[in-house]
Amino acid sequence: MAYCHLNDGVPLYYRDEGQGRPLILLQALMFTADYFWQRNIFELAKSCRVIAPDLRGQGLSGKPNHGYTMPRLAADIDELLTRLDLNDVVLLGYSLGGFVSLQYLQDFGPGRVGALVLMEMTPRLPSAPGWEHPTFGDFPEEAARGYGAALRDNRDIYNDFFQAAFLEPPEGSEMEEMIAQTYLTPTEVAAQLIDEMAQQDWRDKLADVPVPTSLFYSYPNNKVLPTAVGQWIQQQIPESELVLFEHSSHAPFWEEAEKFNRELARVAADR
């Protein structure tokens, strides 16, 4: 088990498998690295050095009472890349990890990053006038701002969202295992991260992404991001490429693992 002890004392857990171009996999909210990348790490490690951290507060990483902001999460990743002396990194950000990836590039620049993959994130979660791509296709701002508080009162409300992440939700013991993994993120941590995500708005900053970018999006069967947000982001980021997953909802790395692994390995091989 590998840990990077951050400058505020928090141990950041990460998987490190394979050799080759570094590929960083940044997870979604409450999605632990070991479990939820299990269909991907070993296959990708045949051609890349795969590094999959648990963001602070999640999985096997430390769970302090502070630091659940995008700038702090991005700084954690910078410490990890610096500690491991990684360059020409392919940085994949999935949902929450997408926000962290964009924050990292804004705060620390592209010096260590050779390519970006944004997967299943919308640059603004809540609805807004003229905004056609909020979470669920319609997520009133009042509901988005109050979701963290609602989770604090009743954690079970997350289970409906979690089920929607899959076109065909796992059943029985497999679903029980997944839910158990999400509980490695304390409720208060999850609520703080949700509050932070609800405040993000990267729509006007996408044109400034400074590295080659690939977009991995499930469409048209996505229950969480049902609109063509991937196509919209492609129009904002110059020369970005869009890879669509037609047979999954919010978790193409799980439901279409073979295609996901193949496309991500291709991106990593393209220098």
CATH class: Alpha Beta
Tell me what the CATH architecture is: 3-Layer(aba) Sandwich
The total domain count is: 1
Task: Give the CA-CA distance, first to last residue.
Answer: 30 Å
- CATH topology category name: Rossmann fold
Low-confidence stretches: none
Judged by helices, strands and strand pairing, the structural class is alpha/beta
What does this entry look like structurally?
Strand 5, helix 4 and strand 6 form a beta-alpha-beta unit. The longest helix has 15 residues. With 271 residues, this protein is of the alpha/beta class. It has 11 helices and 8 strands. It has an 8-stranded mixed β-sheet, sandwiched between helices. The chain has a single domain, classed as 3-Layer(aba) Sandwich (Rossmann fold), CATH 3.40.50.1820.
Main attributes?
globular, eight-stranded mixed beta sheet, 17% strand, alpha/beta, 271 residues, Rossmann fold, single chain, 11 helices
Q: Could you give a quick summary of the protein structure above?
A:
With 271 residues, the protein is α/β, with parallel strands linked by helices. It has one domain (2-269): Rossmann fold. The chain has 11 helices and 8 strands.
Please render the helix and strand layout as text.
Blueprint: E1 2-5, E2 11-17, E3 21-26, H1 33-36, H2 41-44, E4 48-53, H3 70-84, E5 89-94, H4 96-108, E6 113-119, H5 141-153, H6 157-164, H7 172-182, H8 187-198, E7 213-218, H9 229-236, E8 241-245, H10 252-255, H11 257-269
Parallel strand pairs: 3-4, 3-5, 5-6, 6-7, 7-8
Antiparallel strand pairs: 1-2, 2-4
Helix pairs in contact: 3-4, 5-8
